[in-house]
Amino acid sequence: MILIGILGGVASGKSAVSNRLKMLGAVVLDADRAGHEVLREPEVKEALRRRWGDAVFDAAGEVDRRKVAGIVFAETCRGREELAFLEQLTHPRIERRLRGQLEELSLRGVRVAVLDAPVMLKAGWDRMCDGLVFVDTPRHVRLARARQRGWTEAVLAAREAAQEPLETKRRRAVTLIDNSSSWEHLHEQVDRFWRSVSG
């Protein structure tokens, strides 16, 4: 089985590339979804409660990710410390889930899988991949998409500062996909890439 990792900046269109590959026949592993599942684990919730109290939980007793984001993406020394704490707590658990999913896919005979993980290099999950694709999107396009999510420019900058630099991601990739124009242009490139890896 081939595992392809998708890299790119915040709001670059990584999910769009992953979804197109899924439509073509790949199986997508979503690290964000695995992260959401990890936040529901009792041990993780207890660790967060000890660290931040009940303020980061909603009425149903689940972790409120927006409140956590407000803490860990704060542009302060404390914010960086809290992000490091969260990553040390969650990244190993997310990796275990991803590796378990990969094992299941391999047993099922899946030929190509895709890992969509915003913090892939930072977490070291690129070690699991056979190749990395970088979704190259100009900043003004990414900012416009981020604003559609309700984010300010400052929020985008804080999210990006928590990841590896874009140039590092670009250098690590073996394939670049330009996502600066139309969906058709994006799909043409993804389809070409798919043909190269799917045989």
Largest sheet: 5 strands, parallel
Tell me the radius of gyration: 17 Å
Whole-number total of structural domains: 1
Q: Reading side by side through the largest sheet, how are the strands ordered?
A: 2-3-1-4-5
Q: How many DSSP H or I helices?
A: 10
Structure in a nutshell:
By secondary structure, the chain is an alpha/beta fold. The chain is 58% helix and 13% strand. The model has no long low-confidence stretch (mean pLDDT 94).
Features:
single chain; 199 residues; alpha/beta; Rossmann fold; 5-stranded parallel beta sheet; 10 helices; 5 strands; 58% helix; 13% strand; globular
What does this protein look like?
By secondary structure, the chain is α/β, with parallel strands linked by helices. The protein has a single domain, classed as P-loop containing nucleotide triphosphate hydrolases (Rossmann fold). The chain is 58% helix and 13% strand. The protein is built from 10 helices and 5 strands. The protein has a 5-stranded parallel β-sheet with strand order 2-3-1-4-5, sandwiched between helices. α1 (14-24) packs across α10 (183-198). The longest helix has 31 residues, at 77-107. The chain is globular and about 50 Å long.
